Amino acid sequence: MSRQLKLGAVLMGVGGPGDHDTWRHPEIPGDASVDIRWYAERARQAEAALFDLVFIVDSQFITPDSPPHYLNRLEPLTLLSALAVSTTNIGLVGTLTTSYNSPFNLARRLGSLDLISGGRAGWNVVATGDGGTAANYSRDEHFDYAARYGRALESVRVCQGLWDSYEDDAFPRDVATGRFVDPDKQHRLDHVGEHFSVRGPLNISRSKQGRPVIFQAGDSEEGRDLGASVGEGIFTHAPTVEAGVAFARDIKDRARAKGRNENEIVIMPGVTPWIADTDAEARAAEEHFRNGRDFAKNLAQFGRPFGWHDFGRYDLDAPFPDLGDLGKDSFRTQAERIKQVARDERLTLRQTVQRFTAATPAPFVGTPRTVADRIQEWFEAGALDGLNIHITVPSVFARFTDEVLPILRERGVVRDRYEADTLRGNLGLPIPENVHTAARRRTPVPA
Amino acid sequence: MSRQLKLGAVLMGVGGPGDHDTWRHPEIPGDASVDIRWYAERARQAEAALFDLVFIVDSQFITPDSPPHYLNRLEPLTLLSALAVSTTNIGLVGTLTTSYNSPFNLARRLGSLDLISGGRAGWNVVATGDGGTAANYSRDEHFDYAARYGRALESVRVCQGLWDSYEDDAFPRDVATGRFVDPDKQHRLDHVGEHFSVRGPLNISRSKQGRPVIFQAGDSEEGRDLGASVGEGIFTHAPTVEAGVAFARDIKDRARAKGRNENEIVIMPGVTPWIADTDAEARAAEEHFRNGRDFAKNLAQFGRPFGWHDFGRYDLDAPFPDLGDLGKDSFRTQAERIKQVARDERLTLRQTVQRFTAATPAPFVGTPRTVADRIQEWFEAGALDGLNIHITVPSVFARFTDEVLPILRERGVVRDRYEADTLRGNLGLPIPENVHTAARRRTPVPA
User: Which CDD domains does the annotation name (chains A, B) (predicted)?
Assistant: First the structure.
């Protein structure tokens, strides 16, 4: 079968129609962000459209000015476990930080979700950009950039090791003899690393997909390196097809240099399609949304990469302020890029905010056929292996599933049935062999 | 309405028929301990019998000799979230340790479960007895006894504070004006304590039961003190009605001394009823089970309170060995009691193991009427407010729900319908007022 486009649905994400004002949309209950029925309905809507996965983002630091869906939200893994028993085939991907979770806990919780869902769990590994989170976890300061990414990589390796605590045939469960476990097939990890020491074994067996799928989204040098090292799915943003191709090439080159098979990495930019009966109508709606956002809210949101810095204190029409290294321990790459552009183009604060908070013109805008054409073009150019669709408003999402997808399906670009009931199976990723089984296979017992 | 007996169901607990050998029972799939369908069926069975709650125990340290259901099990909260959407009225109580979880994470996860379940979450607060757990969490040594209980109490207080981050009317969600949150009703915690500092606010609103219900099970001085300080449900073991009355009296006296209302504490011993068509038959089955356990497995299990000490190294028929203070950082109270009895009664190791691992003769043994009579007697004597029933084998549990409960229902001792769809509502516990709302009520805004 030829390569097919993969599809993710971002539940209660950002950047969709509404954004700060999503909750005011008549189709969306005001408390949707904490209503498990709302999530279950969206997940079933995505599953009916044969999506590969739903994706739950996260944040743990708020002020009264945070966007509404940040203020009150369910913890991603608790939420996904409820969705696991409300769905049958769709993958369940949640954001969990390695800065404020122990790897043993991460491995347990993700391993449990993987068993409960029958092999549909995925983990979006993040290092936490919001420095304010530290104060919720008994720390005066957030971990520095190097420590955050060091912990992230080490946490993933530890979890992968713990998920192999039991070989697949570790439980003979022989009722006649009373032999439940084969002790030779239970393994300690005995990890001692820079950030963690973890003995194991984990008290959870592997699911039928072997291990949860690792996702990653960072765009900094360190983020790309982490993605290339351990990411099996990469979430990103691609403003143009050229940028998408360059990003995908970079990640896959890095991965190959690390000895990985680049075909075992799925690149999935997050997008919001704008669909209308004519291209002009869709473009107008997209522009209206882009220009219609409230400046005060944009200004507050603009502070996020700088550790939610309060930009209300500066003169909006003076040159962009000198911020020193502000942002270095938050979303560093994004903060540095903003400072660079403001400096190079001699922008005022107001111009800088407008530049960076007015969402980039969306690439997938038009009639269903236009959007389908564009997606196919990007897919065939290698700018993406899949799309991560923001699906806040159900009827907007329905236009995508009911009008765009059938066109792509007819062209063979998207599936017409699930190939598998595991996330790995649908994403076309191999089931990793248990490391201990592999070692045993390589070193046969002498005759 | 007069006081009624509360009912909990311990899913995949210990001490039931089978225990080490539960998995060999023909009614129990070998992988039941990781099969979400098995748990969901048991939860629905308990809900059909109008139980107040299901309870999930936990452990995080295993060796190849650990009991089968310890070797491979789902993380309690991940499991309970899946059960939340598979049930409608029954409470969902999970064990989570305060030794190896941050209170902010605990508050988030429990708060999420409370919203997902519509106000049915409960938290069994434990300090972790198995010292070996430390090595899974980057620690050379387990926390000492004082630190463990200090962390436990402080964690509960922090979580309760975080759960009040939003007052109940904090979200006006006024579509016309665009006002989503009332910033005066979002509150930081700014906790700085001996073990934790936590700023808050938590990004989760309160459920309709206000806060998750706090359960506690420790029997040491420190454990009883913790239970009397914050426990709303107390899990315990009561070998005789007199011991049960004394324990309940002690907890309620301590709670009153701390300024609490003793009627807001529900004491629920864990029990396994043995039911047969005649009393003699039930007693014979219970004795057969009690005496039929494998000595080698008992010897391994006997080591647990001493930090899974290997007693296989001693002469079984020599006097009980001098262990010094072994067990002081594990299950200390239990370890000291064993040493004391062995010394006072001059027991050999074999005799001591037999004394403490042969399960105590079960108090609720006989025909359905005998068991119902006995339960009512204990309940009316004040030895218990409820029972926490181990329900490993479905048909054994069905005899309890279908034959014992109808007798108690006819006598008005147990409910004939759910009074509420929250855990607090069914347990008869009040909904705690938000502390900030209470402060506002006490200090009215000057006119």
Answer: Nitrilotriacetate_monoxgenase
